[in-house]
Design brief:
Length: about 230
């Protein structure tokens, strides 16, 4: 059983965009949530996955990301960049920046109690294991594969292949739950893993893919599946 992290098991509180707006206001940079949202998306879509040897979502990669957002897109004086960068890197490394979605811990404990190997497969920074530990989720997991550490990322097959080896299961015996159609659903399906989409906003459409709207619903879906296999 494989689980995505961000947007599936955990989320920032307040949101990622709000935290960036807070950091901007601390250095007296006037920015609206809308303009910050647009700047962050634009930069993310243009930066390569590796910069000067730094894989996507590593601290080194995020240093370039923050510079591009604040200096190049929003006009922050370069002399003030170090303050913003240190603030954001420290904030996103802290477990108390995140919250578990309702039912996350219960889901992992229930599935492991049924004899399943439960692992996180996530596109995230190298800080994710510490974050999961700080939230108390690590004790309910068998492993966590993190793109920044493995230098492999969803939807590419290599990280799913590594998850299968760590779990000791064949693709047709595995299930992957995530909130992203491309990274999670298409990535898992391409390798023969059964994908399940978690769609809390009820805005996605994925024909032929099981869809749930929260973690307790997924837990019940998995328990029914286990009873019929």
């Amino acid at each position: 059983m494989f689980l995505d992290a961000g947007g599936t098991l955990i989320h920032e509180h307040p949101s990622r965009f709000e935290l960036y707006v807070q950091a901007a206001r601390e250095v007296e940079l006037a920015v609206t949530p809308q303009s910050m949202h647009a700047a962050m998306h634009a930069v993310h879509d243009t930066l390569p996955r590796e910069i000067d040897g730094h894989f996507r979502y590593t601290q080194g990669w995020f240093e370039h990301f923050i510079a591009a957002v604040f200096v190049e897109r929003l006009g922050l004086p370069a002399a003030r960049l170090a303050t913003v960068r240190a603030r954001l890197i420290e904030r996103f490394a802290r477990p108390d920046t995140y919250r578990l979605f309702p039912g996350a811990l219960e889901l992992c404990c229930t599935l492991r109690g049924r004899g399943l190997v439960v692992g996180v497969v996530s596109n995230w920074s190298e800080r994710l294991p510490e974050i999961l530990s700080g939230l108390g989720l690590d004790r309910a997991l068998d492993f966590a594969l993190v793109s920044a550490l493995e230098r492999r990322e969803k939807p590419e097959p290599e990280i799913f292949e590594l998850a299968l080896r760590r779990a000791g299961v064949r693709a047709e015996r595995a299930v992957h739950l995530g909130d992203d159609l491309v990274r999670d659903v298409h990535g898992a399906r391409a390798l023969g893993i059964l994908p399940v989409l978690i769609d809390r906003t009820r805005t996605h459409h994925s024909p032929g893919c099981a869809t749930v709207h929260d973690l307790p619903e997924f837990e019940q879906w998995m328990l029914r599946k286990l009873e019929t296999t």
